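re: the backbone from monday

yeah here it is again, tokenized this time
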């Protein structure tokens, strides 16, 4: 198979405001570099590919600026997956927060910066050019496994979560190697107190795999809207990142030794648009009362000596109440929106690519050894939470732009489109 891969550094110049957590965080340094990574696959006269960004998310603010440049390279954007790792320690400003669904969350995702988005788009085109130049016959193998003690359901550790990990290994004749992995987990080892630019968990995995000759390691996140390292992390520092990186390193090397050669016989890409109902305007006074109650519970917990992951759950509930208040203060001007889902079929495997943070509680019933999910893909529309999350007033449901039940509706439509 003719495969090409390349990456370009997108670490911004400082000072820069970080995104992903509420509150204004200005980066004071760089812990590790951020990258845009590209994998290309040439099939007949067509070129297909993936671009993965060490950003909290990616949407049309970047993608539309790449269209003309990609056309010059004879690349069709509909043949490409644009995904983000969802690091919470990367720069903000690359998403559309001036209007639309993310306007109420501007405090988290930062005001849109067209100049920064143009810089990311330019670096993306440079990475594509390099990947095209390296496109050659490549041996590909893949493996499936599980990886425990990393991500758990962050709201209730007793729920299943998702420990599945899938990986594809690429080796070219000149010795260049790359690995592509799909694993569901919020890359939030570095917490909201961190003031250094970092790719977080995916960056640590890439650094560990580089020691084994891997020129590039691309991390595609899965259905991790309700999965994080909240209950497994011991600290939020470089040493803890290295500990997680070594866990992935050990697992990926084990998978590499058991990987089977891949020959693509059946390949197809399709795009579907699903209409989802948005939340109706809430009552500002009621939302403020809920926030006050959450802040009181959090204060009492701190005074009672609660700390660690248990305290983080209460902090998350308060953040959800803040998001709910912001939604009430900034109601949407529309009642529904289109959710674009990309389907990639490779032999018996189907990858459903969702533009947001999908709950594993929703996708687990559909996920199998042949059905996989990729999050933060081709846009960002917030959380897709299950009905139970709304009943429990979880942060993700309170901050989601969608009405209760729309997550289940999306799963029914995805299953129908995938023939499940």
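seq for it, each position gets an aa:
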């Amino acid at each position: 198979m003719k495969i090409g891969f390349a990456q370009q550094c997108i670490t911004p110049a400082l000072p820069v405001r970080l995104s992903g957590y509420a509150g204004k965080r200005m980066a004071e340094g760089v812990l590790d570099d951020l990258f845009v990574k590209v994998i290309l696959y040439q099939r007949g006269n067509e070129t297909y590919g993936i671009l993965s960004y060490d950003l909290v998310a990616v949407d049309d603010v970047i993608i539309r600026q790449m269209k003309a440049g990609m056309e010059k390279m004879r690349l069709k954007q509909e043949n490409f997956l644009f995904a983000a790792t969802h690091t919470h320690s990367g720069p903000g400003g690359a998403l559309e927060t001036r209007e639309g669904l993310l306007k109420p969350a501007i405090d988290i995702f930062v005001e849109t910066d067209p100049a920064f988005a143009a810089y990311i788009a330019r670096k993306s085109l440079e990475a594509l050019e390099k990947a095209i130049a390296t496109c050659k016959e490549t041996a590909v193998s893949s493996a499936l496994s599980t990886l425990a003690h990393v991500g758990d359901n962050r709201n209730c550790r007793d729920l299943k979560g998702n420990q599945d990990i899938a990986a594809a290994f690429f080796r070219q004749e000149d010795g260049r190697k790359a690995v592509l992995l799909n694993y569901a987990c919020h890359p939030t080892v570095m917490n909201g107190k961190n003031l250094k630019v970092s790719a977080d968990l995916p960056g640590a995995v890439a650094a560990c795999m580089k020691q084994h000759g891997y020129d590039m390691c691309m991390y595609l996140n899965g259905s991790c809207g309700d999965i994080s390292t909240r209950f497994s992390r011991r600290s939020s520092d470089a040493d803890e990142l290295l500990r997680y990186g070594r866990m992935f390193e050990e697992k990926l090397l084990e998978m590499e030794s058991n990987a089977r050669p891949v020959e693509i016989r059946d390949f197809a890409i399709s795009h579907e648009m699903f209409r989802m109902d948005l939340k109706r305007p809430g009552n500002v006074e009621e939302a403020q009362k809920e926030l006050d109650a959450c802040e009181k519970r959090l204060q009492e917990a701190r005074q009672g000596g609660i700390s660690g992951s248990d305290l983080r759950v209460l902090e998350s509930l308060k953040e959800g109440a803040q998001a709910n208040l912001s939604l009430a203060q900034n109601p949407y001007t529309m009642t529904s929106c289109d959710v674009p889902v990309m389907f990639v079929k490779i032999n018996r495997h189907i990858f459903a690519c969702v533009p947001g943070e999908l709950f594993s509680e929703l996708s687990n019933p559909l996920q199998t050894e042949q059905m996989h999910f990729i999050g933060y893909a081709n846009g960002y529309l917030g959380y897709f939470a299950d009905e139970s999350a709304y009943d429990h007033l979880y942060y993700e449901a309170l901050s989601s732009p969608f009405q209760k039940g729309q997550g289940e509706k999306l799963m029914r439509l995805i299953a129908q489109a995938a023939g499940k």
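The chain has two domains: 2-261, 280-331. The longest helix spans residues 308-329.
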